[in-house]
């Protein structure tokens, strides 16, 4: 189905942060946009706000003055819902309350023509449920923009049980015509992004709770090794702990308490204390004037090493080898089981077992486990862990090797799957389960996580790069270590590994 023509009138109801942004996007794409809010004057104020935003872009040379004038001419504040009669698409972005949204949409059915498409920007309510009391439930879909709507590329096109697939296709094409990256998803709790992203926060919070490392170190690892734009603590400080905790609780409750989504007591404490993050001046970090963020912990070695031996295949960590060579380390190869030997130390990519456990089970003395890096060739930091009682000289050799390759080394306490590997394995597991349940296609899940929350790679493509069998092994070891359902591997992951297939196809 084709996109709505630019001659189609669009209405946006709710002139708050989201509604104003969505109205701007539609007007910039060439539609006449009517903006309505039940607070008198709010729609006009929002249009003034959009004008100021556009003005700043003109000053920066990012927008022509003509384009600003034309966009503004297409935005019209209205004070009565009756003015929306001729609209082809009405998008509601009002308060997140099921009954209020239902009442508004029922009212709209009596005002707009039968061909009008109704859309909700809800992030946590079920489209099926919002549509349930409509006369034409097939005409309601979710059109879930991300904040700020003019900047964020992703739009989730959400279909409820009754939604007409042809309208989903029309909204998909329309969002694309508006310069967005749309994805299709079924109306299930959290849709794609707010569901698949949960482990990003949850695993860091758990690592903190178990004293594996401090916030600064974990954040630095997510950025400098994981390739994420921000770590979980700085990001939740930015989002606001009240908002982030509420989303987690909503997804957790909607999945009947599945402990994959279990909220964190550490975050609840912050909310209870009013430490909501940046907006309150204190979250995991302090935002008081002059406050300095603690630096990430880096372990240093005084030694220098010149040679190492690679035994067998290091998996995705093979990408370290050229980097070692570039830093004048002589690397030799021999057969073996994925180990990197330097001096008396043995390094290996984590398989999800704790170092103490793997050292004992595999008979490896002086074992140092390596965490995942998004790109071992360019990462600036890497996490390691080792068993208590490692020979201090061997430990120094292991750290020296990584240090010499230009990596800052952060030592974590001995915990399963370290930090980045554990997080990415859980993100991929959640993405695989969403795919298994037909929430969205693999391609749309990966695109959603890249465009909606700026992940460096989609979780499914990332799992393929690591190797689905390795990801499964990591999850099985996490599951065995904790004995918790939270870490149960997705059936889809098991199936694909058994079939020798990738997750992304
Ligand atoms: P907001 O509080 O900034 O704006 C809501 C606006 O709707 C207010 O101006 C309010 O006066 C108006 N309003 C409330 N009830 C109304 C009614 N019955 N009729 C007309 N206007 C009414 O809220 P925000 O953040 O813009 O969120 C709006 C919707 O977008 C919610 O459903 C929210 O879940 C969703 N959303 C929010 C995101 C965010 O980051 N803030 C991201 C994605 C979706």
Q: Can you describe what's shown?
A:
- The protein has 505 residues and is α/β, with parallel strands linked by helices.
- It has 20 helices and 15 strands.
- The chain has helices at 17-28, 42-59, 65-73, 98-111, 127-131, 165-177, 193-196, 198-209, 215-224, 232-239, 241-254, 265-273, 320-326, 355-361, 392-404, 420-436, 442-453, 459-466, 468-482, 491-499, and strands at 10-13, 33-36, 75-78, 89-92, 117-120, 140-145, 154-159, 181-186, 307-311, 330-334, 339-342, 345-349, 367-370, 381-386, 408-411.
- A hairpin with a 2-residue loop joins strand 11 (339-342) and strand 12.
- Helix 8 (198-209) packs antiparallel against helix 16, helix 16 crosses helix 18 (459-466) and helix 16 (420-436) crosses helix 19 (468-482).
- The longest helix has 18 residues, at 42-59.
- The protein starts with 9 loop residues before the first strand and ends in a 6-residue tail after the last helix.
Give me a quick take on this structure.
Residues 190-287, 420-501 form the 3-hydroxyacyl-CoA dehydrogenase C-terminal domain. The chain has 505 residues and is of the alpha/beta class.
């Amino acid at each position: 189905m084709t996109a709505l023509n630019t001659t189609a009138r669009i209405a946006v109801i709710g002139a708050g942060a989201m509604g104003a942004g969505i109205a701007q996007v539609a007007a910039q794409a060439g539609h006449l946009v009517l903006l309505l809010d039940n607070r008198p004057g709010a729609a006009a104020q929002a249009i003034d706000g959009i004008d100021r935003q556009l003005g700043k872009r003109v000053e920066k040379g990012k927008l022509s003055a003509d384009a600003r004038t034309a966009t503004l001419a297409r935005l019209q504040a209205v004070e009565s819902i009756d003015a929306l009669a001729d609209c082809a698409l009405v998008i509601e972005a009002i308060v997140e309350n099921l009954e209020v949204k239902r009442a508004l949409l029922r009212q709209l059915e009596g005002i707009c023509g039968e061909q009008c498409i109704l859309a909700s920007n809800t992030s946590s309510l079920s489209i099926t449920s919002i549509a349930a009391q409509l006369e034409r439930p097939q005409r309601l879909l979710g059109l879930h923009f991300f904040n700020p709507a003019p900047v964020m590329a992703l739009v989730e096109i959400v279909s409820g049980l009754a939604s007409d697939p042809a309208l989903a296709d029309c909204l998909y094409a329309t969002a694309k015509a508006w310069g967005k990256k749309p994805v299709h998803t079924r109306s299930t709790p959290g849709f794609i992004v707010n569901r698949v992203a949960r482990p990003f926060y949850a695993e860091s919070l758990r690592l903190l709770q178990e004293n594996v490392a401090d916030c600064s170190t974990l954040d630095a690892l997510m950025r400098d090794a994981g390739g994420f734009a921000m770590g979980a603590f700085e990001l939740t400080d930015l989002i606001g702990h009240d908002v982030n905790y509420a989303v987690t609780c909503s997804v957790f409750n909607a999945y009947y308490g599945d402990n994959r989504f279990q909220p964190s007591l550490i975050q609840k404490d912050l909310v209870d204390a009013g430490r909501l993050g940046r907006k309150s001046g204190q979250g995991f970090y302090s935002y008081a004037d002059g406050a300095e963020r603690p630096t990430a912990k880096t372990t240093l070695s005084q030694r220098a090493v010149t040679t190492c031996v690679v035994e067998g295949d290091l998996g995705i960590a093979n990408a370290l080898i050229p980097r070692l060579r570039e830093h004048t380390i002589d690397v030799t190869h021999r057969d073996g089981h994925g180990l990197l030997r330097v001096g008396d130390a043995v390094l290996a990519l984590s398989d999800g077992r704790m170092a103490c456990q793997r050292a004992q089970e595999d008979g490896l003395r002086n074992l140092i486990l390596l965490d995942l890096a998004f790109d071992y060739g360019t990462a600036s930091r890497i996490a390691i862990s080792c068993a208590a009682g490692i020979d201090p000289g061997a430990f120094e050799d292991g750290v020296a090797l990584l240090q010499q390759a230009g990596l800052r080394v952060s030592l974590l306490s001995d915990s399963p799957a370290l930090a980045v590997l554990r997080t990415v394995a859980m993100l991929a597991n959640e993405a695989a389960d969403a795919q298994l349940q037909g929430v969205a296609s693999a391609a749309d899940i990966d695109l959603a996580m890249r465009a909606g929350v700026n992940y460096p790679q989609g979780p499914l493509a990332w799992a393929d790069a690591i190797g689905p069998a390795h990801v499964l092994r990591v999850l099985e070891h996490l599951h065995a270590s904790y004995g918790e359902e939270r870490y149960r591997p997705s059936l889809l992951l098991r199936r694909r590994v058994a079939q020798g297939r990738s997750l992304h196809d």
